[in-house]
Design a protein that fits this description.
With 299 residues, the protein is mainly beta. It is built from four helices and 21 strands. The chain has a ten-stranded mixed beta sheet with strand order 20-11-12-14-10-15-18-17-16-21. Strands 4-7-6-5 form a four-stranded mixed beta sheet, with helices on one face. The mean pLDDT is 96.
């Protein structure tokens, strides 16, 4: 737990609460915490978390196959209640309601930079200056899974939760037909704009978590964070670059438990009027610019 604590601080998180066997890490947003570490006998993914609006929704979810019992979060910052559902491939899905939002008083929000463009110079007698250090994390943006039975998995998530497809990725099968192999999904809030994707999954030979991703302020923040992590000797996976689907500027790293974790900035927003996209799967669909895609990225 000591190693992962040092890493997550270098990644831009802060300790919210610590006990003998659990640590809650936060960002500078209103979420009580964005990452939880528990002491165990093996390195294991304990599931992503979605907020639901009420206990009524939690009770509704308790009827989903694989659901456990609703439990009080006595020790967790912000309190609330949690329900854990095990999906068809064994991944935990955590739903929380009744959390008290965190008061971000005392935490400074990064300054919004003023850029001088070629024909529009708004910044005068003010200089761009930066402080070396971690890229402060704002919130958990998304996480994703690699799955073996892709159709069964996406049907489970899209039929039980208000997740909606934003983009499908496909390959051509032996018969020349398009076969979906990956999905980017957003939370359906009607006409309200939401992140391009909060959840994704892709076909794989094994079932495992792919990565989790945390939003940072802007491009400079991201590059400063990349520089800081490199100075500490951590191993970069891929980045910095810009994705095509979602448009995020990305930067992927290995944490000390060999889980992939990402900083991102400047992502797209969609709503129920955004057309569902479809494009070929492959390296060419991953980035508009950036380093070459490592061969292990899609493993």
């Amino acid at each position: 737990m000591d190693k992962i604590t040092i890493f997550l601080k270098d990644f831009g998180m802060r300790i919210v609460k610590k006990t003998d066997d659990k640590i809650w890490f936060g960002g500078y947003g209103n979420d009580p915490y964005v990452y939880v570490v528990e002491k165990g006998t093996e390195d294991k993914f304990l599931g992503g978390v979605f907020l639901v609006e009420s206990e009524v929704e939690l009770e509704k979810a308790a009827k989903i196959p694989g659901a456990g019992k609703i439990e009080l979060l006595i020790d967790a910052p912000g309190g609330g209640k949690r329900l854990t559902i095990i999906d068809p491939e064994g991944f935990p899905v955590n739903l929380i309601c009744g959390q008290e939002p965190y008061s971000a008083d005392g935490l400074s929000e990064p300054e919004k930079l003023v850029y001088n463009f070629e024909n529009e110079k708004q910044r005068k007698n003010k200089f761009q200056r930066f402080t070396d250090g971690p890229a402060a994390v704002y919130k958990l943006g998304h996480f994703g899974l690699c799955v073996q039975d892709f159709e069964k998995q996406w049907r489970f998530y899209l039929s039980n939760f208000n997740l909606m497809p934003t983009d499908w990725l496909h390959v051509d099968d032996k018969g020349g037909n398009k076969k979906d192999v990956a999905l980017f999904a957003h939370i359906d809030r009607g006409e309200d704009y939401v992140d391009h994707h909060t959840f994704f999954m892709s076909t794989n030979k094994s079932s495992h978590v792919h990565h989790c991703s945390f939003e940072v302020h802007d491009f400079d923040t991201q590059l400063l964070g990349h520089q800081w992590l490199a100075k500490q000797g951590y191993k970069s996976v891929w980045g910095v670059g810009r994705h095509i689907l979602g448009s995020q500027i990305f930067d992927y790293w290995w944490d000390t438990s060999k889980f992939m974790i990402e900083h991102y900035a400047d992502g797209d927003l969609v709503n129920n009027k955004t057309p569902i996209g479809s494009c070929p799967a492959g390296d060419e669909s991953l980035a508009v610019w950036g380093p070459e895609v490592p061969g292990t990225f899609l493993d």
